[in-house]
Amino acid sequence: MFAHCVHIDDTDRVRLAAAGSAVAFCPDSNMFLGSGLFDLDAAWRYGVSVGLGSDIAGGTSYSPLYVLNQAYKVVAVRGGRLPALRGFYLATLGGARALSLDHHIGNFTVGKEADFTVFDFAATPTLARRTEIAESFTERLSALMMPGDEQAVAATYILGRRVHERRPSA
């Protein structure tokens, strides 16, 4: 597992892919530090496994939604697009594959560990409005990804057991 990889070239990408290595894409820390912008599209073009990373030592947030929002911006600044489904892939199954844990976690396949987050698409007025007008599931995910806000987290489960539940505001 390599982190950041903001200063690699195509030769490096070929070697990473050939070695079966993976990259932790840490957009928040890279933007905070001004250290460079990871080229996600090039990594995928060369078959490099990529997962989303927060790197809180150099970043500003543990929130996967916030980091997804930052990933969207990094890809956009580089002239690409990060559709919501691809973004959530990075944060779920993509991360699990990057760590070679995809046979245990990363999606809802029967037999895998049930680690997941429940989202409230009406958690804020803006999110409620965006999801209300969404015409597809992908648009709903995009509405969730764009604010990058953990207010949408209603509950968190680890191994199928609820470990966090947001309390209704008074």
TrEMBL record:
Domain Amidohydrolase-related: 1-158
GO cellular component, one term: cytosol
A UniProt-annotated Pfam family: Amidohydro_1
Cofactor(s) required for function per UniProt: Zn(2+)
GO molecular function: guanine deaminase activity; zinc ion binding
Keywords tagged on the record: Hydrolase, Metal-binding, Zinc
GO BP term, pick one: guanine metabolic process
Record-annotated membrane-spanning stretches: none
Protein name: Amidohydrolase-related domain-containing protein
